[in-house]
Amino acid sequence: MFTPAASGNCLAMNGGVVTPGLFDAVLLDRDGTLIEDVPFNGDPDKVRVVPGAREALDRLRAAGLRLAVVTNQSGLARGLFTAAQLRAVNARVEQLLGPFDCWQVCPHDDSDGCRCRKPAPGLVERAAAALGTTARRCVLVGDIGRDMGAALAAGASGVLVPTPVTRAQEVAAAPYVARDLPAAVEEILRRQAAVVPATPRRAGTVLVARSDSAGDVLVTGPAIRAVAACAERVVLLHGPRGRDAAALLPGVDELIEWPLPWIDGDPTPVDPATIDTLTTRLAAVGADEAVIFTSFHQSALPLALLLRLAGVPRISAISDDYPGSLLDIRHTVPTGVPEPERALSLAAAAGFALPADDDPGLRVDVPPAGEPGEPYVVVHPGASVPARACPPQRCAEIVAALAAAGHRVVVTGGPDERALTARVAAAGGTDLGGRTDFAGLAGTIAGARCVVVGNTGPAHLAAAVGTPVVSLFAPTVPYGQWGPYRVPTVRLGDATAACRDTRATRCPVPGHPCLTAGIDPAEVVDAVGLLTR
Question: Over 448-459, what HEC string results?
Fold first, then answer.
């Protein structure tokens, strides 16, 4: 093992902090990523490294990250080169780029149906195991969609470095895109460093705030755990839409529910009496400091002003706007960072880090549960934002296809979605619409083999309980920022649709093509098979 020694709390050591960081290892595709792509190359003399590769890899080695190569080599199955020639080419790669801690090679062709050929996750899983870690603590750098598909299907992070052969659809669907290998390494090291406090510290009572929907609260969970690891007491200010998720977060000692009119999508008017009451309530917490978590399009400054009026002496938040004296820690974050890491970086800026025995994935406190009987797949057709919901007819077709493929299907939804779940479940599933509370939904998802869901709260709930996700993802917001975090995933849907990055709440294109024409029910069946076999 090469991860830091386990620690159950925020612990200073030799002037630093014991922290697991985000990644233990970087996995790299070979052809087109480390070296120029020569199709079916069996000649070591034809190996040419990409510009800056050796220096970039040495930076990763110096940072203590393990390195592995994960490469499809179907030429072996096709008889286009021998195993000895393959070894000679790989040896030449190491001669030019330095040693790798692990090589994982798939020798099969597509027709072999193996689990190792990318975009299947086998190479990533095997590399992680050989390096003594897990896939979710790895990041894979590659040049085509198969590489990103393998990373996501294993629960790893992915960085795409396009080449002239990379298709536009693959670039649009990638979780993160870098211009070249050195830029990819720079981003990996930046993300790794961003969650490590420059000055680790302990605190007394800390008020943390995330006044959004259930999914937003869930993705803030790792950062809240980081604060809790270093604080004597944590109080979470949340909104009504995040109530159920907030109740399941570990590390929280007290909850305060309050709607904030500058956050809610359908806000009530600002009422001075209500604001005075909130300020009084915040003052009663007696917080030594506050950390305000927000999405990239929200401002932390209105709440920061109230916290100042409530007498909170130290306030941290992300703010692109000039905060004056409202913030003590004004943090900024580049665009495209996964939401959990965005929040973790703010916690680190405030001096808080996850302990070494706490992986930075999502987590909830929920008793294990599930539906009795044979294994099942969950289909969740609803979404809090209409533009992100797969149309009911397509969801019904997905249920029918899964049932025809031999899967037991359970259809879930909230009390206000009973008509939707009844319509979808009629195609061959069991209707649980409105029959579980949020904790019960978490248990149902935890017991499932896989969840088919759009970009909405239950996708993050699945990530929090470790259930694989077939993500029917409308591209209105960036996938790399809002996709299911560190859980095996297959992304489906048209990533190049006209609604891309519009943040539209209702589909601006007639027929919702990104999740209708962009998704074939047979693709969903294949994705479920990939994630569950």
Answer: CCEEEEECCHHH
Which residue type is seen at 16? G
Q: Which helix (H) or strand (E) holds 27?
A: strand 25-28
- Kindly tell me if the per-residue pLDDT of 124 is higher than 90: yes
How far apart, in whole angstroms, are the C-alpha atoms of residue 531 and residue 55? 36
Q: Order the strands of the 254-257 sheet from edge to edge.
A: 254-257, 231-238, 203-210, 289-292, 315-318, 329-331
pLDDT digits (tens, 9 = 90+) for 264-280: 878 889 999 999 999 99
Place of tokens 């390096």: 131
pLDDT at 18 over 80: no
Q: CA-CA distance, 127 to 100, in Å (whole number)?
A: 11
* Cβ contact 360:195 at 8 Å: yes
pLDDT at 1 over 70: no
Contact 329, 317 (CB under 8 A): yes
Tokens of 284: 């009663």
- Work out whether the CA dihedral 486, 492, 496, 498 comes out positive or negative: negative
State the distance between the two ends of the chain, measured CA to CA, in whole angstroms. Answer: 28
Q: Which residue has the tokens 């932390």?
A: 300
CB neighbours of residue 101 within 10 Å: 17
Cis peptide before 240 (omega within 30 of 0): no
The pair of structure tokens assigned to 379 is 């289909």
Distance from C-alpha of 531 to C-alpha of 523, rounded to nearest angstrom: 12
pLDDT in tens, 144-172: 999 999 999 999 999 999 999 999 999 99
Whether the Cβ atoms of residue 146 and residue 169 lie closer than 8 Å to each other:
no
Contact yes or no for 531/378 (Cβ under 8 A): no
Q: Which residues carry out catalysis? A: 29, 31
Mean pLDDT value of segment 319-345: 95
Q: For 291-317, what is each residue's pLDDT tens digit?
A: 999 998 899 999 999 999 999 999 999
pLDDT tens digits, 488-508: 999 999 999 999 999 888 888
What is the residue type of 489? T
Q: For the chain, how are helix, strand and coil distributed in percent, rounded to 5?
A: 35, 15, 45
Q: Are 177 and 336 in contact (CB under 8 A)?
A: no
Rounded CA separation 202/232 (Å) = 8
Measure the CA–CA gap between 443 and 467, rounded to whole angstroms. 11
414-439 pLDDT, tens digit per residue, is: 999 999 999 999 999 999 999 999 99
Per-residue model confidence (pLDDT) at position 13: 31
Q: From CA 1, how far away is CA 315, in angstroms rounded?
A: 38
